Amino acid sequence: MDHWPKDVGIRAIHFVIPSLYVDQTELEQYDQVSEGKYTIGLGQKQMGFCTDLEDVNSLCLTAVSQLVENNGINYADIGRLEVGTETIIDKSKSVKTVLMKLFEPSGNFHVEGIDTTNACYGGTAALFNALSWMESSAWDGRLAVVVAADIAIYAKGNARPTGGAGAVAMLIGPNASLVIERGLRGTYMNHAYDFFKPDLTSEYPVVDGKLSIECYLNALDQCYKSYLSKCGDGANVDLNKFDSFVFHSPYCKLVQKSLARLYLNDFVNSGTKDKNYPGLDRYKDVHLPSTFFDRDIEKTFMERSKTIYEDKTKPSLLLASRVGNMYTASVYSGLVSYLVSLPPKDLPGKKIGVFSYGSGLASSMYSIRVVDNDLSSLIGNLKKGIDRLEERIRLTPEQFTEVLEVRQKSLHRAPYIPVSDKNQLFPGTWYLSSIDEMHRRYYERKE
């Protein structure tokens, strides 16, 4: 259609990571688990976390304000603001309405969009909402901003090392550097209790670990099948058609298994006679739904796809391995990590596959085409953010545990004044300064 704006997609990205982290090797020792359980078994190196000074509102305030400042945007030029998060601190008031405080000086109150919630999928749903607005009769020619943010923390136990925190804010518009390929989207939705948060008095989720993995891998199969059906030459589309594939990352090892899973799908789709899959005849009658926990198939296809993984997916795990699971922001931290792994001159023309998953469950797969529309500026800003990894403060597992205990004890308290040290925050960070007796939250910004 001629009336669609050209090259709609992501024009700029800004990500926010906590200023504090804990080392996963030290956490293994502290938790008295076997050496390598977190670092090798899960593929995690470090985990970022927030004190009681930060909540989802402050993370989003920091991400949006810095996105705008770093890219010379006028708040008056933003017509839609979408938030994806599962970190709920109010059952009625949206995070988006808190962010409107940033728009007050510009006098721009005509901004559509609110929050979208479903586990780790909310950021992708928010992105799709922004894209739909821009390609609809409601679009008024202005830009959109999508912010995905979460604080992922768990009760003591096996799941705690898979936590993390962060935010990713994206500027959406035409003439983008990262063009969302129109019409190429596969989606799979179903009902499952694999991970959920029924206890509103706690930040900790309820997790069925085995079911969660099964749901994730099945959703991946279904989304890939759906995505391929949208390709005109679907029968000839496989991993070779992608220069990179980024995944939602609960923990890095699952991402490696996911890439192997797509390779298994390609093998099945090839009719198992393709010369590209020698020595795999014994798997010719494989039934995908019966293989989620088949160690032999998992090991075989991880080994066969290792080179593809090293080339196309491992570079996307920089932030996931050093910050942890950001829930809604996770898959977009993977996109950021891949983009900074290559020289900007090598990026134009690249095709990036994206798989987004949220428990409960909701999932989608889509693809991005990289175009040289001010690409060097986008990458330059991202690399400045990556430098922050080396500027963080490492706390001991004991200190990390104390921080989580303070967060849990202070949850929903009112009035409340955070007790943590503001000097540990990065400059330019918004933080929670106080909560009054009516539970109203007030925020200030560190200079």
Per CATH, the architecture is 3-Layer(aba) Sandwich
What structural class is derived from the secondary structure elements? Answer: alpha/beta
Main pleated sheet? 9 strands, mixed
- Radius of gyration from the alpha-carbon trace, in angstroms: 21 Å
Domain Hydroxymethylglutaryl-coenzyme A synthase N-terminal: 4-176
Active site: 86, 120, 248
Function: Catalyzes the condensation of acetyl-CoA with acetoacetyl-CoA to form HMG-CoA.
Protein name: Hydroxymethylglutaryl-CoA synthase
Describe the structure.
With 447 residues, the protein is of the alpha/beta class. It has a single domain, classed as Thiolase/Chalcone synthase (Peroxisomal Thiolase, Chain A, domain 1). The protein has twelve helices and 16 strands. A hairpin with a 5-residue loop joins β15 and β16. α5 packs across α6 (252-269) and α6 (252-269) packs across α7 (295-304).
Quick overview of this protein structure:
31% of the residues lie in helices and 21% in strands.
Annotation keywords:
447 residues, alpha/beta, Peroxisomal Thiolase, Chain A, domain 1, nine-stranded mixed β-sheet, three-stranded mixed β-sheet, globular
Write the layout of secondary structure elements.
Layout: E1 9-16, E2 20-23, H1 24-31, E3 46-49, H2 56-70, E4 78-84, H3 95-99, E5 115-116, H4 122-134, E6 143-152, E7 164-173, E8 178-189, E9 195-196, E10 206-207, H5 209-230, E11 244-247, H6 252-269, H7 295-304, H8 306-312, H9 318-322, H10 330-339, E12 351-358, E13 362-370, H11 375-386, E14 393-395, H12 397-410, E15 430-435, E16 441-445
Parallel strand pairs: 2-14, 4-5, 4-6, 11-12
Antiparallel strand pairs: 1-7, 1-8, 2-3, 6-7, 8-13, 9-10, 12-13, 15-16
